[in-house]
Amino acid sequence: MRNTLYEVMLKLAYALLLSSVVTGAARAHEVVPTIADLTVAEGVADISLRINLEAQLSGIDLDVVEDTNDAENAGDYDSLRALSPDEIAARVPELLAAWNAAPLLRVDGEPVNLETVSVTVPEDVNAELPRISEWVLRGQVPTDARGVVVAWPAGSGAMVLRQQGVEEPYTGYLEGGTQSPEIELAGGGQETAWQAFLTYIPVGFDHILPKGLDHILFVLGLFFLSTHLKPLIWQVSAFTAAHTVTLALGALGLVTVPGSIVEPLIAASIVYVAVENIFSSGLSRWRPFVIFGFGLLHGLGFASVLGEFGLPDDQFIPALIGFNVGVEIGQLTVIAIMALCVWQALRVARGEGGQQAAKSLYVGLAVVALALCFVPMPSVATALEAPVPLFLVPLALVFTGCFLSVQFRQTAEPYRRFVAIPASVGIALVGAYWFIERVFL
Predict the structure, then answer these.
(1) pLDDT, tens digit (0-9, with 9 covering 90-100), for 119-129
(2) Is 160 left (phi over 0), alpha (psi -120 to 50) or beta?
(3) How many angstroms separate the Cα of 136 from the Cα of each of 37, 52, 140, 402?
(4) Are 295 and 221 in contact (CB under 8 A)?
(5) Could you write out the DSSP letters of every residue in 296-355?
(6) What is the band of 313 on the pLDDT scale with cuts at 50, 70, 90?
(7) 118: CB partners within 8 A, 6+ apart
(8) Is residue 426 within 8 Å of residue 258, measured between CB atoms?
(9) Rg from Cα positions in the chain
(10) Longest dimension (CA), the chain
């Protein structure tokens, strides 16, 4: 009885610690790319923007947050979001002044002063959703100009830049603080299919690591079912096949399901796989089919991201494939990292490794992971776009579980008892929290 109570308390402690760390970042996504359509003709440059003006005006560093609620000055965004459309439109000149000072647009190396032609801020948008405005800018350029460069300011998040009105137009994906190559005004700067493919691989990877915490937990739920490779291959294959289908259909606009439905169901899928891990140590005959169904949901979630980029038709397929490849690389990276973390514990459980060396290894790894939580690492946090402890604390808990698995290796299924089940309990609790938040909060 004492051992059973100990195990229950251990699992709950792991779960509560994991959920307390992870749920801090589980909020509705609000930071979306700005879509910019650039037209230069007869001495006039027009830039039509689909943009979240409140996010840009708030001063939030949109390069390092995925959700405005995660920013230290989130209250500034909320205050702006509560303003009327006319009040937001009145704030546009201050943003434009900063962009012109940068400058945002250069033609043949010379800055172009932009002026506002029109600002349309929509009304009656749910306060929990980003309000996407239409902002048209115009500047005078020499009639014999040859090329233009767009420099997207640091802290502005991502931008999809699309050239209009020419054959073979340029389309590019710019991060904040970067600039486009010189875009030939006569056209011909369109990326090849291969370039578009390569461009969107890192975009897909980034959507898993570090931004896709829900997808990370789902993949880890697949990993913790069994220590054997075959069940993992079956699950990952079913998941990959399914989300590839709906990623394509959703991004092409052939299938549309509101995020208010997809996001809670994704959270529910996390709960399902984690709970099944607790009660089953092997691949049931129906699990690959269930995983396939959940993969369809996750594909719709990926599609909503790619659909925001507004790619032209002739670049869409290679970009779609590149994005999907990036997602797969991200998922395999998650699995590889966790496999390395638990590898020595599994070797000891199979009688292939030394107990003392493994215990020393996991004690050292757990201590290092926890110690690093207190070391300021702003550059790492910026790269991860999340607090560093968000990743290190769960790793420290996994290392601790591996230590216990080695310490009590004589018990039945030590890895499952001290690592797989506690981790699955934690994943299930986080998924349950997300489901409640996305439906009721």
Answers:
(1) 999 988 877 67
(2) beta
(3) 9, 13, 14, 57
(4) no
(5) HHHHHHHHHHHHTT---HHHHHHHHHHHHHHHHHHHHHHHHHHHHHHHHHHHHHTT-S-H
(6) low
(7) 134, 135, 136
(8) no
(9) 24
(10) 86
Q: Is 304's pLDDT higher than 80?
A: no
CA angle 63, 68, 74 (to 5 degrees): 115
Q: Which two tokens stand for residue 261?
A: 């439905």
pTM over 0.85: no
Closest CA to 183 of 140, 149, 230: 149
C-alpha–C-alpha distance, residues 149 and 170, integer Å: 11
What is the rounded CA–CA span in Å between residue 221 and residue 236?
11
Q: What is the mean pLDDT of residues 29-49?
A: 88
- End-to-end CA separation in angstroms for the chain: 39
Question: Among 239, 210, 202, 240, which residue's Cα sits nearest to residue 322?
Answer: 202
* pLDDT tens profile 154-204: 999 889 899 998 888 888 888 899 999 999 988 877 777 888 888 889 888
Is-contact 416 427, C-beta < 8 A?
Answer: no
Q: How far is CA 98 from CA 11, 57, 61, 102, in A?
A: 52, 11, 15, 6
DSSP codes joined into one string, 176-217: TT-BPPPEETTS--PPPHHHHHHHHHHHHHHHHTTT-HHHHH
Q: How many CB atoms lie within 10 A of CB 208?
A: 22
Reading the block at residue 375, the tokens are: 């070391």
Residue pair 19/429 in contact (Cβ under 8 Å)? The answer is: yes
- The single residue listed with the structure tokens 């998040």 is 157
* 366: its two tokens: 């757990």
Tell me the residue type at 99.
Answer: W
Please name the amino acid found at residue 168.
Answer: E
